[in-house]
Amino acid sequence: MTRKVRRSSRLVRAVLESVLPALRGNEAAESEAAMERKPKIGMHVVVFDEVGLRHEGLITADWGTTDEFATVNVLFCASDDTKQDNYGRQIERLSSCAHRSRTNAPGRFWIYPEEEQVA
User: Fold this and answer.
1) Strand ranges (DSSP E) for the chain?
2) Do residues 93 and 99 make contact, with C-beta atoms less than 8 angstroms apart?
């Protein structure tokens, strides 16, 4: 009976040794995904301007919080076709733009692109 217990312990150990690295890899991937949710300069976001129009935007400043819903500065291309210059479509900026979860305003907020699917 002792031999059977030793064999089953070896088998359990072998299975655990083969499964644990994969589990640790998933934890690392989940942790990395959570880290990516923090706003970074140059990150793509969806911005809603003062009148609630949707734009693709880029973060130009993060106001120093480690929160995933930080206040940021963003820039985006003007939606008005007449706003052209020698460089193409003019850019517009929103300073101190809050995440949608932090404001009740109908516009002037930002969200992560994947949050748009949830709404």
Assistant:
1) 44-48, 54-62, 72-77, 84-85, 88-89, 91-99, 109-111
2) no
Q: What is the DSSP letter of 108?
A: S
Q: Provide the terminal-to-terminal Cα distance of the chain, rounded to the nearest Å.
A: 60
The token pair at 69 is 């819903």
Task: Say if CB 48 and CB 108 are below 8 A apart.
Answer: yes
User: How many other C-beta atoms are found inside a 10 Å radius of the C-beta of residue 93?
Assistant: 13
Domain-wise residue ranges, the chain: 1-36, 44-118
Nearest 5°: phi and psi at 88? 115, -145
Residues in the chain: 119
Render pLDDT for 68-105 as a digit per residue (tens, 0 to 9).
888 999 999 998 889 998 999 999 999 999 999 988 98
- Among candidate residues 48, 46, 45, 47, the one with its CA nearest the CA of residue 107: 48
Q: What residues form DSSP beta bridges with 44?
A: 58
Which two three-digit tokens encode residue 81?
């076709």
Mean pLDDT, all residues of the chain: 79
